[in-house]
């Protein structure tokens, strides 16, 4: 009889054993009470703070826990919690009548670089699993690297990023039979080769471009910006001659312009001093017009000559 009673107590304890849930920060999770139907009042608690109360008449009352604002009824006995926060981890208890069922929620938060990394830079990857002080001894946190190897630490410090660190990293969280996987991608930029500067070859020394030049190399004090000193002297002298020619042309142009203005003023003054000559035309005198109203004089009679006597 005692064996039967002990066996019944063990079965009861196993039936009331809780389940482990794993959720990510910002996600949601559905907690199952452990019973399919209820005939009496049902309560959900988080660390002894009441979340929701399902009454027999169908009404739902909210408790004092902060989770009540993000919790709602799911099916008949379960609750769904959205917008998971790190403080939501811990023990959840479903109380039905005189029996209670304990469950545990593990909240996982993963942090990794979002942008591309340069070779040689430092980076940190962290997979943090918060059980809320539930004391779960079987909780394990690992990182799986891009090459397939596993690192049994929740925090990975990359002191000098290499090209081999590029790829997919997986945060692995497991507790009892529950497993959680979060994948992040690390991008590593390959170093850009520095542009090579072309070497100027000295026409007098063909070996100046291959490093065998002993008199005109880059370290030669007689060289300036890759050119021999006398080339710079010639360039300077030519520039000076061009500047002098430009100045001479400008001065001559202005001088000729002043002379031209002076010549025009003098010519104008000479023209103003000469007397003006007018054109005198020689005309024939016109015949006198006969006076009207006067008679013409008759010619005088010839004088009478004496008759010849016979």
Can you walk through the features of this model?
The protein is an alpha+beta fold and 310 residues long. 19% of the residues lie in helices and 31% in strands. It contains two helices and 19 strands. The protein has helices at residues 2-15, 229-273, and strands spanning 20-24, 29-31, 42-46, 49-54, 60-62, 71-74, 78-81, 90-96, 99-111, 117-118, 123-130, 140-144, 150-151, 155-158, 167-175, 178-186, 188-189, 223-224, 227-228. The strands form five sheets. Strands 1, 3, 4, 5, 8, 9, 11 and 14 form an eight-stranded mixed β-sheet that branches. Strand 4 and strand 5 (60-62) form a beta hairpin. Residues 1-16 and 211-218 have low confidence and may be disordered.
Q: Provide the gyration radius in Å.
A: 61 Å
Q: What is the H-and-E element order?
A: HEEEEEEEEEEEEEEEEEEEH
Helix- and strand-based class?
alpha+beta
**What fraction, in percent, of the residue positions are helical?**
10-25%
Number of helices: 2
Mean pLDDT: 79
The end-to-end distance, rounded to whole angstroms, is: 238 Å
Uncertain parts? 1-16, 211-218
Strand content: 25-35%
The best one-word shape is elongated
Count of distinct strands: 19
Major sheet: 8 strands, mixed
């Amino acid at each position: 009889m005692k064996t039967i009673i002990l066996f019944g107590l063990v079965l009861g304890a196993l039936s009331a054993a809780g389940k482990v849930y794993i959720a990510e920060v910002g996600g949601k999770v559905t907690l199952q009470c452990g019973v399919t139907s209820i005939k009496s009042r049902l309560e959900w608690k988080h660390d002894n703070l009441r979340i929701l109360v399902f009454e027999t008449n169908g009404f739902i009352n909210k408790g004092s826990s902060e989770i009540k604002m993000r919790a709602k009824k799911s099916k008949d006995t379960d609750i769904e919690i959205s917008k998971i926060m790190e403080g939501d981890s811990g023990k959840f208890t479903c109380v039905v009548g005189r029996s209670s069922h304990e469950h545990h929620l593990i909240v996982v938060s993963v942090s990794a670089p979002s942008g591309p990394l340069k070779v040689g830079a430092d980076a940190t990857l962290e997979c943090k699993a918060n059980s809320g002080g539930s004391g779960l001894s079987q909780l394990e946190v690992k990182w799986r690297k891009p090459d397939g190897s596993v690192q049994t630490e929740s925090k990975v410090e990359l002191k000098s990023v290499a090209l081999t660190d590029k790829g997919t990293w997986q945060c692995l969280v497991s507790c009892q039979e529950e497993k959680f996987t979060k994948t992040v991608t690390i991008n590593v930029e390959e170093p850009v080769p520095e542009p090579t500067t072309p070497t100027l070859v000295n026409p007098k020394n063909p070996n100046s471009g291959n490093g065998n030049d002993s008199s005109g190399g880059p370290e030669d004090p007689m060289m300036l910006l890759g050119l021999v000193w006398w080339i710079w002297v010639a360039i300077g002298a030519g520039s000076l001659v061009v500047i002098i020619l430009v100045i001479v042309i400008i001065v001559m142009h202005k001088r000729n312009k002043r002379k031209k203005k002076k010549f025009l003023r003098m010519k104008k003054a000479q023209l103003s001093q000469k007397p003006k000559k007018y054109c005198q035309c020689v005309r024939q005198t016109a015949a006198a017009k006969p006076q009207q109203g006067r008679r013409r004089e008759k010619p005088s009679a010839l004088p009478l000559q004496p008759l010849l006597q016979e």
